[in-house]
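pinging the channel bc i need a second pair of eyes. not urgent but kinda urgent?? the chain im working w is below, pasted from the shared doc
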Amino acid sequence: MEDEQFIREVNEEMRQDRMDGLWKKYKWVVFTVAILIVVLTAASRGWETYSTNQAAESGDKFMAAIALSNDGKHDEAIKNLEELGASGSGQYPALAKLRIASEMAENGKISEAVAAFEKIAADSSFNTTLQNVAKLRAGLLLVDSGSMEDVAKQLGSLAESGKPFRHSAREGLGLAAWKANQLPEAYKWFQQVADDAEAPSGVRSRADIMLKLLAGKGITKAG
């Protein structure tokens, strides 16, 4: 028994010696890894804080530009929005570019506004919602300034069932068809709006009015 105890003690001592040797050999690796973990964690948290602060700063700049626009200082607002579009954080560059296009439209520069909206809609660096908003805005502007085909190019895909902007897109297509004297086609779009229980009440009310106007012209079904 004493021999067995002695052997265990020797084995334990050998294991301890090996551990001590490994520690002496690799302790700097352990220290380096530990330091890297601390540094990377700190860097990650620092970046999150920086990103949050940058997004907040961009948000403040965006709201300041909107205030300038509301005060009638459109040129100054556009200048600030252009700066935000070039160097802003998060989705604010996209929002700034959308707002610039809106400013163009409000100032009567319809063709420039449509081109700006189309450029945003084609830019895959922006999220899908903002791209679709840009397509919708371009299409609605074209109701007055473009052809039925121009409007359909922008709004056709947005008017499909289940799409979030389908109600406004269908209304725009209906108005474009009315303008082009394609009355049965206009009836189709307005009827789709009226039949959609998820359509906002204001949009449905306008669709009902248009359907009554069409009925007065003898149009009571889609072409």
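so The chain is about 80% helix and 0% strand. and The chain has two domains: 1-107, 128-223. — does that match what u expected or am i reading it wrong
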